[in-house]
Specification:
- With 59 residues, the protein is an all-alpha fold.
- The chain contains 1 helix and no strands.
- The longest helix is centred in the middle third of the chain and has 54 residues.
Length: 59
């Protein structure tokens, strides 16, 4: 009986660790989302300005 309890505790501990790590990753993703949106908008403006300079008629 002690062996089965040890196995159950080990499985439960790994499940708790997995849940904590997953929750932390999801929390950082949700908290960092506005920054990611701003970063992507800035990247789009940057590439748009490069294409504007390339397509300008003045050499």
């Amino acid at each position: 009986m002690t062996r089965s309890l040890r196995r159950t505790r080990a499985r439960g501990q790994s499940l708790v660790e997995y849940a904590v790590i997953t929750a932390a990753l999801m929390g950082f993703t949700v908290m960092g989302w506005p920054f990611l949106v701003q970063l992507l908008n800035a990247l789009q403006k940057y590439f748009g300005s490069i294409y504007y300079v390339i397509q300008s008629p003045i050499p």
